[in-house]
Protein 1
Amino acid sequence: GNSVTQMEGPVTLSEEAFLTINCTYTATGYPSLFWYVQYPGEGLQLLLKATKADDKGSNKGFEATYRKETTSFHLEKGSVQVSDSAVYFCALTRNYGQNFVFGPGTRLSVLP
Amino acid sequence: DTEVTQTPKHLVMGMTNKKSLKCEQHMGHRAMYWYKQKAKKPPELMFVYSYEKLSINESVPSRFSPECPNSSLLNLHLHALQPEDSALYLCASSPGRGDRSYTFGSGTRLTVV
């Protein structure tokens, strides 16, 4: 079946540090890959996405590259801010499916 | 309008109450979803409506009853809930076939007492 694995954290960084949150997936066919962010007390917001191999999604300084050979979609940001503190979910969906498969989420805390 | 709007934001209900959660979108999306999220867990799919027809029910207990009156609205009717049903209920929508970018609402935080 389809599944997503990501480092669960919590991850604690100082402001301006480099961020990597690892995400690997198992899926048949050619899934689309996503990162969603959930700020405290809120719903999920789409952060970035990639729909085919070697695509790079980027938004708000965050980047992730769809690596089919390693079945990975690691999230990176060069310099985190306190306002980036949130839970980050890696997810996939099949192109002809209707269900997202979410990873367990990674809680990020950025300290000033 | 690029939002999914959920009401109410917070709801406290007794185990004998009947209440409804509402979700609305005006993006022309033809697929709408209900998810349940417990604390510190990822969202879990409950129901999928595609073109206003129920297409997926993930074995959800009958005390949860979804309804899609039209392509912009999605309701979740609640009756005889249990305290373990307390959670954040998220609505989402997507264009339908093709683009899989869901837009999520902010959720309704439900407490069953």
Protein 2
Amino acid sequence: DSGVTQTPKHLITATGQRVTLRCSPRSGDLSVYWYQQSLDQGLQFLIQYYNGEERAKGNILERFSAQQFPDLHSELNLSSLELGDSALYFCASSTRQGSNSPLHFGNGTRLTVT
Amino acid sequence: DQQVKQNSPSLSVQEGRISILNCDYTNSMFDYFLWYKKYPAEGPTFLISISSIKDKNEDGRFTVFLNKSAKHLSLHIVPSQPGDSAVYFCAAGEGSRAAGNKLTFGGGTRVLVKP
């Protein structure tokens, strides 16, 4: 158990809809990261937050947004969903930013867009 | 543009033998490297890491080797056990504050250890 909690585990929705994925980091971790894993591909970095502020951005679509709240949990919002957005979405957390601390991953949310 | 590549999508090895997983990178700004292991329906789990100032790091049955001039790293698992059957991801990061702590992942290598 990594200590990172993601909800829901599975999500099935239709094209054009909007969903929110939630992540609670490990206790004491200030950094939260979101990654997307499409079928049989590696993990693609989406965005990082550190203590409530956006810290780094990857190839995140404009239809996607995220935030980190004062209690350090984070939400990833996906809107105007397309079939190609079907993927596993992982959240990870780490203690520090800009350092070599490993990321600890949750078990992911599997999003299916039909 | 894949900055981190794992060219072998799968690997099959006999129990007790050595598993060697390879990873190549192109970004010379990467200065630390990690291996993650992933079982189905679970998130990736950190396995071992290495800083660019080293060329080898060992942790039990797992050893990571780094060849900076070749921009290549490898993970050795000795001896391989059936429980090692999983997908292994190579990841790289820039340890600068500006880069945050994001990691760039390879596509993964599926390892099957046969009893």
